[in-house]
């Protein structure tokens, strides 16, 4: 019993010890489990902290009393120098933290969330920084913060906001561009349309609607009104489907009716991938017409260029010769076969050089490159080429818009020669003006002095400085008035010039200078509207004129004395001559008895000399009358053969005495003519007398009378010694002077031939004398029929 009673407590103790051991073991196991769990939690907490520190969002807890629980880097994000402990610490700083307005908005949102539990999203800005924050706020876990704290998540949305703004701006720009493009398509003057992938019309613009005469685009789309007609068995939709299948733009020229008019259109089908096919039509009818006109104009222009005198050559942008007119080919001696090869510009210059049609230069390659630069300039170039053969060429190189070059070669040789001649003429004119005895000036239509000579400046005492300014007439008149004896006369001279310019009539006047000189003034209108002013110094002329008047009076007096002398001489000569002839006739008739043969010869010689002297006196008197213009003519119808015979008979004895053969030919000199037979016998007789008297013994004299048309011609010729040219000229002149025989025995004329010439000319005829030493003399007297 004792053992039993003792063992029970021990057993209980053992049980208790076992339980305690088990409990200790369990406790140890639980402790170890808790320690492991704690370690796991600490490790997880550490990882969560590191995640929160590296997370893009910053968790901030705002408790009900306004205190904050936030990581330190959040304060650094806001640019704060010390960690923020309250919500108000986030604002109120000058260059950090939140802006005042953002801070007030955040405070209001936080209070509202703490009060109502409502979530919010708010955008904030940081002072002094371009960074932007986005705050997402809601109520914190009540189990952790039972008093109503607000959990705020701050996100750095700078890049997101920038991207959002960028996308927003791009979206707005795209929307604007689309609206503009849609408006442009709608307002475009070209018909434009869009087809769905099934090739049905989806959209047309206003120009399309007008072209097909529809009410609006909806009617066109609904009814499927096509702008283009089927061609080559294909509808417009088929052409669009081919472009879409080939995924390439297609273009074609078709005919269509626009607004009731048949036009040519250039149609484009443009595939747009899955969106369908776009199309547009450009009216090229005007372009085709313009091309046709340009082609016709080009052909007409080339025909015109071929008619020009200047050479024309055209090169394209590749420097290839595309056109050369005929004058160009002729000027540079180019063959059509060579030009048909379309040579380049450099080859053309080389061929020109081979033909000697470019200027001689020392470095031809450099010269050629400089001319090739004409293609790269925008301004025209002009040169003058002096060719080796003396040809002057004016070369004009005009760049054309397509990059080519148009060259014009004008032969200015004649113009250069004319310019040189003009320069020479101007110099000659200046030299002529300066050496004239007249003072000359030319005033233009506006009264300005344009040309003057040296004598004009000297006469009026004008200096070169004044004249070179080409002064007006009003400016010159005060200077000129100082030299006149009456200065008021200068007004008359000024009006004279003005009236000549306006009325285009020649005017004359006189000007007397203070020094006594007198000038003859004349103003002459010139074809170009100018007025020529001339001044001739008449001072010496007046003296000469007076001297001439005095001389004329003296000559008149001498002429009167000469007339009286001739009359007295004729009377004084004829009286003794009549006595000599009368006594000689008595002696010849035997009044004084029979004469010996020798005495009879002397008497005959006396009678011949008396007759000859009488003829000479008559000749002198007749010549004097002719000089005085008082020779009377008694015209009457005269038989020409009879007249010729009388003339021959009157000179037969003289010819026989001189042993000269006289031949008379009046073969066709028949008929009558109104003339003075006495004067004609005298004239022809003087020619025969001269031919017989000065002929040699055994010589021949021919008198010929013939008709030449309506004129009667007397020809007297001889084979005598002839006359010198000076003597022939003297006889043929109006102031023939009688001469005697010279020392060589070559006889010249007395008054016979000059008298014969005067008689013939008084009948309206002509007198011709042909003679040379040793070749005889021929006198031709022509009398026209009255």
The major sheet is characterized as:
5 strands, antiparallel
Poorly predicted ranges (pLDDT <50, ≥5 residues)?
A: 737-749
Instruction: Report the CATH architecture of the largest domain.
Output: 2-Layer Sandwich
CATH fold node name of the largest domain: Heat Shock Protein 90
Tell me what portion of residues adopts beta-strand conformation. 15-25%
CATH superfamily of the largest domain: Histidine kinase-like ATPase, C-terminal domain
What's the short story on this structure?
This protein is α+β, with helices and mostly antiparallel strands and 786 residues long. InterPro entries: HATPase_C_sf (IPR036890), HATPase_dom (IPR003594), His_kinase_dom (IPR005467), HisK_dim/P_dom (IPR003661), HisK_dim/P_sf (IPR036097), PAS-like_dom_sf (IPR035965), Sensor_HK_Regulatory (IPR050736), Sig_transdc_His_kin-like_C (IPR004358).
What features would you describe in this structure?
It is an enzyme of class 2 (transferase). The protein has 23 helices and 27 strands. It has 786 residues and is an alpha+beta fold. It has 5 domains: 51-156, 2-Layer Sandwich (Beta-Lactamase), CATH 3.30.450.20; 188-283, Beta-Lactamase, CATH 3.30.450.20; 289-417, Beta-Lactamase (2-Layer Sandwich), CATH 3.30.450.20; 436-537, Beta-Lactamase (2-Layer Sandwich); 632-784, 2-Layer Sandwich (Heat Shock Protein 90). Strands 2-1-5-4-3 form a 5-stranded antiparallel sheet, sandwiched between helices. It has a 5-stranded antiparallel sheet with strand order 7-6-10-9-8. Strands 12-11-15-14-13 form a 5-stranded antiparallel sheet. A hairpin with a 5-residue loop joins strand 1 (57-62) and strand 2 (68-69). The protein starts with a helix and ends with a strand.
């Amino acid at each position: 019993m004792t053992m039993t009673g003792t063992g029970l407590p021990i057993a209980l103790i053992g049980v208790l010890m076992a339980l305690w051991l088990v409990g200790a073991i369990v406790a140890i196991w639980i402790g170890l489990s808790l320690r492991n769990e704690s370690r796991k939690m600490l490790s997880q907490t550490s990882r969560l902290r590191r995640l929160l520190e590296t997370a893009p969002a910053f968790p901030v807890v705002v408790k009900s009393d306004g205190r904050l629980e936030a990581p330190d880097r959040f304060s650094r994000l806001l640019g704060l120098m010390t960690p923020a402990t309250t919500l108000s610490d986030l604002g109120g700083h000058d260059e950090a933290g939140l802006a005042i307005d953002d801070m007030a908005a955040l405070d209001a949102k936080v209070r509202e969330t703490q009060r109502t539990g409502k979530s919010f999203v708010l955008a904030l800005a940081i002072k002094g920084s371009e960074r932007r924050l986005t705050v997402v706020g809601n109520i914190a876990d009540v189990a952790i913060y039972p008093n109503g704290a607000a959990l705020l998540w701050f996100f750095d949305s700078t890049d997101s906001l920038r991207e959002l703004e960028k996308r927003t701006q791009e979206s707005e720009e795209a929307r604007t561009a689309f609206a503009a493009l849609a408006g442009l398509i709608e307002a475009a003057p070209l018909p434009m349309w869009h087809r769905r992938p099934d090739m049905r019309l989806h959209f047309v613009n206003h120009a399309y609607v007008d072209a097909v005469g529809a009410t609006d685009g909806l009617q066109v789309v609904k009814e499927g009104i096509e702008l283009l007609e089927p061609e080559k068995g294909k509808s417009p939709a088929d052409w669009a489907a081919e472009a879409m299948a080939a995924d390439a733009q297609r273009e074609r020229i078709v005919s269509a009716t626009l607004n009731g008019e048949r036009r040519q259109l250039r149609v484009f089908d443009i595939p747009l991938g899955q969106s369908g096919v776009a199309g547009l039509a450009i009216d090229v009818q005007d372009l085709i017409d313009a091309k046709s006109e340009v082609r016709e104009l080009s052909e007409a222009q080339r025909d015109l260029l071929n008619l020009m005198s200047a050479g024309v050559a055209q090169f394209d942008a590749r420097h290839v010769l595309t056109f050369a007119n005929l004058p160009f080919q002729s000027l540079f001696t180019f063959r059509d076969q060579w030009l048909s090869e379309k040579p380049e510009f450099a080859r053309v210059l080389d061929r020109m050089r081979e033909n000697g049609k470019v200027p001689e230069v020392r470095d031809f390659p450099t010269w050629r490159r400089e001319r090739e630069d004409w293609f790269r300039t925008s301004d025209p170039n002009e040169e003058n080429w002096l060719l080796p053969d003396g040809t002057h060429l004016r070369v004009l190189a005009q760049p054309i818009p397509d990059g080519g070059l148009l060259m014009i070669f004008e032969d200015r040789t004649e113009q250069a020669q004319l310019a040189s001649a003009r320069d020479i003429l101007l110099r000659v004119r200046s030299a002529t003006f300066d050496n004239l005895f007249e003072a000359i000036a030319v005033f233009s239509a506006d009264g300005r002095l344009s040309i003057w000579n040296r004598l004009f400046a000297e006469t009026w005492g004008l200096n070169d400085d004044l004249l070179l300014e080409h002064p007006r007439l009003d400016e010159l008149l005060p200077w000129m008035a100082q030299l006149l004896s009456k200065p008021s006369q200068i007004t008359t001279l000024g009006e004279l010039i003005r009236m000549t310019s306006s009325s285009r009539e020649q005017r004359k006047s006189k000007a007397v200078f203070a020094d006594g000189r007198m000038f003859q003034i004349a103003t002459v209108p010139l074809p170009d509207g100018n007025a020529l002013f001339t001044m001739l110094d008449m001072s010496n002329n007046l003296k000469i004129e007076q001297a001439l008047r005095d001389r004329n009076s003296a000559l008149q007096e001498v002429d009167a004395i000469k007339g009286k002398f001739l009359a007295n001489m004729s009377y004084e000569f004829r009286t003794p001559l009549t006595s000599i002839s009368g006594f000689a006739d008595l002696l010849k008739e035997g009044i004084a008895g029979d004469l010996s043969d020798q005495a009879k010869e002397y008497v005959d010689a006396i009678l011949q000399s008396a007759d000859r002297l009488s003829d000479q006196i008559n000749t002198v008197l007749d010549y004097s009358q002719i000089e005085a213009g008082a020779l009377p003519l008694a015209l009457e119808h005269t038989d020409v053969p009879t007249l010729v015979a009388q003339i021959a008979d009157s000179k037969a004895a003289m010819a026989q005495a001189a042993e000269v053969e006289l031949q008379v030919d009046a073969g066709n000199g028949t008929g009558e003519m109104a003339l003075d037979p006495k004067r004609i016998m005298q004239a022809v007789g003087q020619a025969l007398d001269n031919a017989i008297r000065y002929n040699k013994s055994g010589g021949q004299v021919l008198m010929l009378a013939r008709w030449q048309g309506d004129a009667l011609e007397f020809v007297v010729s001889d084979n005598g010694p002839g006359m010198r040219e000076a003597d022939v000229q003297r006889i043929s002149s109006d102031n023939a002077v009688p001469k005697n025989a010279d020392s060589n025995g070559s006889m010249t004329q007395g008054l016979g031939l000059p008298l014969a010439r005067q008689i013939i000319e008084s009948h309206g005829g002509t007198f011709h004398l042909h003679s040379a030493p040793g070749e005889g003399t021929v006198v031709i007297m022509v009398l026209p029929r009255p």
